[in-house]
Protein: Chitin-binding type-4 domain-containing protein
Organism: Aquatica leii
Amino acid sequence: MDDLLNHQVELLLGGYTNQWVKNGGKCGVCGDPWNAKVPRAHEYGGTFGQGVIVRQYTVGSVITIRVELTASHFGYFTFSVCPEYKNVTQECLDKNILKNTRSQDGLVYSDIRFYPRDGSKVYEMKYKLPKMQCSHCVLQWRYIAGNNWGMCPNGTEQVGCGPQEEFRACADIAIGKLSEEAPITTTSTTVTEGIPESEETYSPISAIVIAVVSFLLVSLIFFLLYFHYYQIGGRIKNWIKPPEDNQEFAPQPPPRVKRSQNRIDL
C-alpha cells in the first residue's frame, strides 16, 4: 500500500451526468461518485484513503494552500475541515469552513470563496483555520465550476447559473497537538490538490555574494580568453612575416674609373 500510486487526478464525482442525473447532485466528500462502493476510494478505509497526516498546524493559524489548476472552468474554490476523519460528512465540513484572508483585484471580496481567474496555473491562497483542535481531521477542497448555462435565482438565465460541474479532494491534517496513535509522515501524499507547503525564505546577503562570485568568475574567464588568443595572434603574425635578408651590408657599386685617352700623332 505504501507504493500505491494514485492516477485519478480528476475527482469530478463521476462527471456532470452522474452527479446531477443519476445521483441528484449528491457527491462523495473527497471527489468520488456518490454511487461508488463504500468505503469510497479516496475516503478513509478506501484504496487511497490511508489516513496519513501530511501537515500539522496550530489552532486558528493562517496557512498557505496551493492548487494546480490544469483546466479552468471559472467558478470558485472553498476549503473546510472536519474532525471526524473516519466518518466525514458534508454537514460536518460545512460547519468548519476556512476563511479567505486575501482580497482579489477587480472582484468583490468573499470571506470563503477564491475565484481562479487567470486560467491554468498554480494558485496560492491564504486561509485561516477555525479555532478548533483535532489530532486527525480532514481538509476538503471544493471547486464548483461556472461555465455551464443555467437558471439564476432571479429567474434569468446565463452562464454560471444552475447546476455546475464540481471537483473535490481531501488531505489528512492535524490542528494542535498530534495524538500518539495518529500516523505521522514528513513526506507529501498522493492527494492531488490543495496540500499546503512551507514558504521559502529570501536572503539578500546570499544574493549579493552569489552575484559578486559570478562577476569574478566571468571576469577571469574573459581575461584567460583574451590572454590565450593574444598569444596565439602574436605567433601567427610571426609565422606570416616575410624572412629578412641576412647580409650585414648592402652591396656597393664598383668604383668609377676615368677612361684615359691616347692620341697618336703621325
Q: What stands out?
A: Strands lie at 53-57, 62-69, 76-82, 99-100, 121-128, 134-144, 149-151, 157-159, 166-175.
